[in-house]
Write a structure and sequence with these properties.
There is one protein chain. The chain is of the alpha/beta class. The chain has 2 domains: about 5-215 and about 435-450, Rossmann fold, CATH 3.40.50.11720; about 225-430, Glycogen Phosphorylase B (Rossmann fold), CATH 3.40.50.2000. It has helices spanning about 5-15, 15-30, 70-85, 100-105, 125-135, 150-155, 170-180, 180-190, 200-205, 225-240, 255-260, 280, 285-290, 300-310, 340-345, 365-370, 385-395, 400-415, 415-430, 435-450, and strands at about 65, 95, 115-120, 140, 160-165, 190-195, 210-215, 245-250, 290-295, 315-320, 330-335, 350, 375, 395-400. Helix 4 links the parallel strand 2 (about 95) and strand 3 (about 115-120). Helix 10 (about 225-240) runs parallel beside helix 15 (about 340-345). The two termini are about 30 Å apart.
């Protein structure tokens, strides 16, 4: 063990009590964090014999392990998993996560015989117990999740560990280079890396990764839930006004939206949620000429955003209360998980969350797959190339700030001809970039077969 990883291991070992305390605290708002805490430290109550696949039913005789830390990675993993099950009928899945939303979404992917546990905390002991317990045939890390002891443990036990749908932005590369003594061995000891874009590939090579292919983004292969999409479009057809969505909004962006409803509102007036929307803002076309739909990224913020909107003097109708068509209100609040296809079907235009605050932007690909044009803020470094390609294809447009984004989204939603053309461009953009799932599944199969 090199000195950098030895020091890192001491720190992660010493941080275990802090992690337990953090999990207990988070479980108060999100009960999923209180589930099976022992798994985080490689402690599993189920006997190993009842977990292990049998060669008669599984073509590999061992688990295919996929690690998807959170919600977005789990949705990408679902696309890859469908392709893997096609090429490896009868395979058994070992699915790990780091967040409660990821684990909840991952439950939908399990078939009889599959196993779902938490990602082991990155100490040598927890990693060793995890690998001894499950003995996976291969490990597939989704997108960005490279942990030094996890990589070293897999290499020591002969488990090929790959990074799929891999991305690395310039900021993350700079951070990794500052910790090169720790990061470079971790990236270089991966069995293979399959990058989303050539830019990602260049940055991954710069930190030592062996990039074996550039396959594109798995999320382009998403097939929106047809039932949700149809229901959303049916509701949209019945709406009294065009629908504009603030999609996957992050902390602070709802306040920016409130503050930007009128440029004459005093800065911070609405952000502090102490003053109701004034009469000028209420009469503005930005508020009243469209139906607003806000879908926060994180479920623990649903109630917070609801209160923020009420305190600003707006009426709110929550998705969780709808029994038929959405109820009349200034704002519809999308307070459900797993229904983004419904919301994109309902919206004429989506403003992309995470891109108006300096948070890097959320994924725009699902919106495009649903034929929903997107307005992007200035901050899209998490999905830089996808954002550039979408703008070049006319599936998205970039704006410098929230106020401009509101104006552009409202104008597009209220122009049927322009909206129809933008929706068609979004659909064609999505279709043109498919294929990563099959390419990645073939690469996984080739690696497993060469290792047998």
């Amino acid at each position: 063990m090199n000195p950098a990883r030895a020091l890192y291991s001491v720190v992660t070992w010493g941080a275990q009590p802090l992690l337990r305390r953090k999990l207990r605290h988070r479980a108060k708002a999100e009960p999923g964090y209180g589930l099976a805490i022992g798994e985080r430290f490689g402690r599993y109550p189920t006997p190993i014999d009842s977990l292990m696949p049998h060669s008669s039913s599984d073509p590999l005789g061992r688990f295919v392990w996929i690690h998807a830390v959170s919600l977005g990675e789990t949705r990408a993993a679902a696309i890859l998993l469908a392709a893997l099950r096609e090429q490896l009928p009868g395979m058994r899945l070992l699915l790990t996560h780091g967040t409660a939303t990821g684990r909840a979404e991952g439950e939908k992917l399990l078939l009889p015989g599959d196993v779902q546990v938490w990602q082991p905390w990155d100490t040598p002991g927890a990693v060793a117990r995890f690998l001894r317990k499950f003995r996976p045939a291969i490990g597939i890390l989704m997108e960005t999740e490279v942990w030094p002891n996890l990589v070293a443990g897999c290499r020591r036990r002969g488990v090929p560990l790959v990074l799929a749908n891999a991305r690395l932005n310039a900021k993350s590369l700079r951070n990794a280079q500052r910790l090169a003594a720790l990061a470079r061995p971790a990236y270089s000891n991966l069995a293979a890396v399959w990058a989303q874009t050539e830019g990602d590939a260049q940055r991954l090579r710069a930190i030592g990764a062996r990039v074996a292919g550039v396959f594109g983004n798995l999320k382009f292969d998403v097939v929106p839930d047809a039932g949700q999409l149809a229901l959303g479009r049916n509701w949209r057809a019945q709406a009294l006004r065009p629908v504009v969505m603030l999609a996957s909004s992050r902390e602070g962006e709802e306040a920016l939206w409130l503050e930007s409803l009128t440029q004459k509102t005093a800065p911070g007036q609405i952000q502090q949620a102490q003053t109701a929307i004034n009469s000028e803002a209420r009469s503005s076309s930005a508020l009243n000429s469209v139906q607003w739909l806000i879908v926060p990224r994180h479920p623990q913020r649903f109630d917070e955003v609801h209160q923020q909107l009420l305190q600003a003097g707006l009426t709110v109708s929550r998705r969780s209360t709808w029994t038929g068509v959405p109820e009349a209100a200034d704002v519809w609040l999308g307070d459900s998980l797993g229904e983004m296809a419904l919301y994109y079907g309902l919206a004429h235009v989506a403003m992309l969350g995470g891109s108006f605050a300096p948070l890097g932007g959320q994924n725009l690909i699902e919106a495009a797959a649903c034929g929903c044009p997107v307005v992007l803020g200035p901050h899209t470094f998490n999905f830089a190339e996808a954002a550039e390609l979408a703008c070049a294809a006319g599936a998205a447009q970039r704006v410098p700030d929230m106020a401009t984004g509101i104006a552009q989204a409202v104008d597009l939603a209220r122009n049927p001809t322009a909206h129809a053309a933008a929706s068609d461009r979004a659909t064609r953009f999505s279709s043109a970039h498919r294929g990563a799932a099959q390419a990645t599944a073939r690469a996984v199969l080739g690696m497993v077969e060469s290792d047998r």
